[in-house]
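INTERNAL AUDIT FORM
Audit reference: QA-55
Scope: verify that the stored structure record matches its stored sequence.
Auditor: D.O.
Record contents follow.
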Amino acid sequence: MPARSVLISGASIAGPALAYWLNAHGWATTIVERFAELREEGQNIDVRGAGREVARRMGIEDTIRAENTGEVGTEFVDAAGNPVASFPVPESDTDGPTAELEILRGRLSRIIVDRTREGTEYLFGDRIVGLDDRDDGVTATLANGSERTFDLVVLADGLRSRTRSLVFPGVDAVRELGMYIAYLTIPRIGSDTDWWRWLHAGRGRSVTLRPDNVGTTRATLSFLSDVRGLDELEHDAQVMVLRRTFSDVGWEAPRVLAALDDASMYFDAVGQARLPAWSRGRVALVGDAAYCSSPVSGMGTSLALAGAYVLAGELAAADHRTALDRYETVLRPYVEQAQKLKPGAPHIANPRSRAGVGLLRTVLKAAASPAADRVGGLANRLFSPPADAIELPNYPASAIPAVVSS
């Protein structure tokens, strides 16, 4: 009997992780990626809780640790760069804004892709433009004009998935959170540290600098806005928006703005994917395309890894209809917890007024004090995502490495 086959759209994290587990279950896997090559860029992400457990079961936890960015914690600063409150890396991997395992998104993607090269066909520089879902399989039409039929198609191509509308036409899947973030990689200088440094600049604006392990510094400029569509502007227009928005901000903002002309920049509107179902017929969604929780949640990587693991395990255990129902039954409570942002987020963490910034700094100082731990861990309540809020099933398969129980 031939192996069941799947076409996966997206070669970031959820897609290759799904291919890894389906390969282990004996499936034939193909990944199509619209970019011409694997994207090595990307900002710091953390691997926590259930995501870390999946990484452990994949046998890549130590590899991730070896690629750690070196971030020692999170430090909130004032406009002069003076520390306001500091939160070192905690002992628990579910607590605090900085996790024990911090890695660049592109590096984690590379680690997983490298473990699927032998068992997965990669089609770079192409994308799905049509889907014909029938009882006996789903035929995907690619942008290059070719057609191929698979037992299943899975979309793992991000919050702004271009193929999701082929499955759910007319459905507005994205819940916008009224915030934009520009991500940049800039040269590291002598005053940079191994802390994730974060300035609240008022008027809903923030500037952050984070260390990496490749000799550069990762910077972000974020701001609240009720205007929609700024992420769809041309690059030069986005640069103009950023320069006008942050023109009066101190600390390292002028340095980051000066780098806009030369640095590669990713500019995105922050949102969540909210869908009533994660599949239709023989087409399913996984990762951000299905249930993006937003960078504000700190749960994107954990959801991508856990979702890929659960989807593959259920597909290996049953027919696709039963498996896709089980996938949602097992994972949706975890997703719902992850998408429940802190009350008022992201606005409460990005105050518009000077008084709001002052109040936030007072709370952060209190949370960073030794007394806060003695009265119940205020810092954990402020920062800790629900990274452990799922009991991962065991899906036995002879090709899967030994499983460490949760």
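Auditor finding: record pair retrieved intact. Residues 82 and 394 are 48 Å apart (CA to CA).
Action required: none
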